[in-house]
Amino acid sequence: MSEQDQALRQIDRLIASDVLHGSESLCKLLRYLAHHALEHPGVPLKEYQIATEEFSRPADFDPAVDSMVRVQAGRLRVKLAEYYAAKGADDPVRIELPKGTYTLAFHHRQPGDSRPHASEPHANEPFHSAPPQTSHKWLMAVITLSVLLAAALAALYFTRHGELGQRLGRQSHRLGVSCLLEAFSLRARRTMDRL
């Protein structure tokens, strides 16, 4: 039996378990996440996509206003941990939903392996693991600083080259960025004077 077939069989086992019994929305979410992880390995899911495709939310769904997907994912994480702490402790496949992602991770137990301890949730190699999380804040900071640096350099260049620089200076006062541009300009002039 292939690893994908084992993963699908484990999904069916989870859905039939007492832990998820009676929770149609969690079963629906688990099935959706599993099919996506197996059919599109390594492709992360977005909250908006889950809400509109699986939970029939309208196209104007706003995750900042409606936390339904986050709440359901949190509940599913708790139920998965509950299942594997008891009845599913010896199952051949362990399924996790890592925090910060909507991509399931499948851990296959090899014959003869002892079951992973609670303190070692990743004792087995993952079949499909969640993609590493990137820091969007870091990326935005780099982009913002790059744009500010480019604007300051452009302002410095134009202020040194006549009429266009004077117009830019007048407009920068209206935009409220004159202090920033002047600081960069002063620093650049000092550097140029040293050369």
Protein architecture, described:
- The protein contains seven helices and three strands.
- The chain folds into two domains: about 5-130, no CATH class; about 135-195.
- It starts with a helix and ends with a helix.
- Strand 1 (about 95) and strand 2 (about 105-110) form a beta hairpin.
- The longest helix is centred in the C-terminal third of the chain and has 24 residues, at about 135-160.
- Mean pLDDT is about 75; it is low at about 115-135.
- Helix 2 (about 25-40) crosses helix 4 (about 70-85) and helix 5 (about 135-160) crosses helix 7.
- The protein has a three-stranded antiparallel beta sheet.
- It is mainly alpha-helical.
Class computed from helices, strands and strand pairing? mainly alpha
Number of domains: 2
In round numbers, the mean pLDDT is: 77
In terms of DSSP E residues, the strand content is 5-15%
| Element pattern in H and E | HHHHEEEHHH
What is the topology, as strand order, of the major beta sheet? 1-2-3
Q: What is the CA-CA span between the terminal residues?
A: 72 Å
The tally of strands reads 3
Number of alpha- plus pi-helical segments: 7
Rg computed from alpha carbons, rounded to a whole number of angstroms: 27 Å
What descriptive keywords fit this protein?
7 helices; single chain; three-stranded antiparallel β-sheet
Write the layout of secondary structure elements.
Layout: H1 3-16, H2 24-39, H3 47-53, H4 68-85, E1 93-96, E2 105-108, E3 126-128, H5 136-159, H6 163-175, H7 178-194
Helix pairs in contact: 1-2, 2-4, 5-6, 5-7
